[in-house]
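Why predict the complex rather than its parts? Because the way molecules touch one another can change local conformation, and only a joint prediction can capture that. The input here totals 661 residues.
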Amino acid sequence: MGRVILVTGASRHLGGTLARRLAELPDVDRVVGVDVVPPSHDLGLADFVRADIRNPVIGHVMSSSDIDTVVHMGVIATPRQAGGRSVMKEINVIGTMQLLAACQKSSTMRKLVVKSSTSVYGAGPRDPAMFSEGMDPRDAPRSGWAKDNVEVEGYVRGFSRRRPDVTVTTLRLANIIGPRITTVMTDYFSLPVVPTVLGHDARLQFVHEDDSIDAIIRASVEDVPGTFNVSGDGVLMLSQAIRRAGRITLPIAAPLIPAVGRMTRQMGVADFSSEQVRYLTWGRVVDTTRMRSKLEFEPAFSTLEAFDDFVAARGLNSMLPRERVAAIEATVVDLLGRGGERSA
Amino acid sequence: MTCWGVGVSAVPKARVIPIDSRKRLEEVPPADLAESGPGWDERVASAVGFLRRRITGDYEVDEFGFDPELTDSVLMAPLRPLFHSWFRVEVRGLENVPADGGALVVANHSGTVALDALMTQLALLDEHPAHRHLRMLGADLVFRTPFVGELSRKAGHTLACNPDAERLLRRGELVGVWPEGFKGIGKPFSERYKLQRFGRGGFVAAALRTSSPIIPTAIVGAEETYPMLANASWVARVLGLPYFPLTPTFPWLGPLGMVPLPSKWIIEFGEPIRTDALDPAIADDPMTVFDLTDQVRETIQQSLYQLLVSRRSVFGD
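Output of the joint prediction:
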């Protein structure tokens, strides 16, 4: 008998793509996608059940289809997607509790995969240069999505203690970026003028959306218990990323940031949570050694390649593409060379 | 770096030519020009290339945020005249610094602002045959401070904590640590060249765990750059700084008071203390760590005394 997989958050881009991809695998019998809202795109061979993971209905869905693997993708990153921060927090935290309660009851369940984020490490000036999975945050996140992830991971740890027979894999993904996905960061880099924190340059890491799907599939198919950081290789400085995206930087002094944040939120341009501001001030880099050695996952895109793929797909850098700058450079050098010949 | 003019004067033919650059070009055949170091057009081309890479973000930084291209050509540039003309830094014992592989440079800290650390970094980059980058470990205050923190990371520095130190040493980097910290640079002038307490010995544990040699380094001259006569502790408290220095010139002369006194410097890299014969697990034994910390501290203190005895004057050669 093949596998029966439940995917939460299936109506959104990443969850939907994952459900479709999982359903195509040969040893998977059935994939059930669950979400509060109907999917906006094709789920392929996967089934869809419209259910709210915040109430016990999810238990019936699980028992009626003999689910053996649950992939929890239902932690929402942006309040705008959920319809306000309080709804978002309820879906993320209460939803996870309900889902795990249903999992604990299930007799067929043998694997749980949770999509978390490297934001659980927080961001601050006292951080080590790289976080590995065993390290505790120095400045733990206090609010927003990052805090939700910390709480979700806490409940997941509790679940794995109560059900030691279930293989639990937690993937802490770096910021996901790519040609199709919309996140707080893709919104941020799409702004015509990108505000930054004056006097700081954050170190950023990205994972390509295809790589993040591949990593979650690997965790769902193979038995690799534990917590893993997942990110593309290398690091991009915030200033460097903005230049690669051909945007203009607008450095803002730290004390003025809250006021600017309020203004952009009211204008509906961009939503800067205090967590995001901390990340854009201090940055964060994670160690992906375990991802390679134990999860045996090799991302196809480096941080830089993932970011460039995003920039190219959005046509962001149309103002000052690298080729044109290189051509200008060649012209200048050529002129200089000729000038030198003439004077010789 | 040899500039074009210097290179050409080595060509016998060019010596008799008057100082008209155009005439020089006429006299020197192109082949000789190519041999005489980079020409001005090459230099402009490399500068334009540098500019293009910066504008388009076409460069690489490591996980610590270290930007080698920016460090070598921009950040270190203003320090070079200070190094050569102002402090006339004399570097000794470079043969004690390995050409590759991890090693820990441990030095005394002095002089109110951490110029000594920057001069040591420049010494290893420019004077060492392998042009090694010194990856320094700094206090969290450094990284908390706007601009300073940003530039520090780009220059290859990182937070003084064991995970970072061990990660760098394992990668085979040359790591620099100033274990006295603010106690060292913020001490009054009356206590010059007296080593302060060496922290908790975290750097020794890092060297032991990674079997990296420790290179005790003595820096003479930095103490006299900004002789700190007193510490305005209430100003420091208001500004959130570890100390606020009052020197003979600062803050009385305003910005002019920030010009360091031109003392003559000596940086001496001592003989490495090897740790590869010891069991890495010994890093968890506090007594061994304390003993080794003391040994490093004593070695640096002795070298400081020897250098001071042999020094003829503070400012002269």
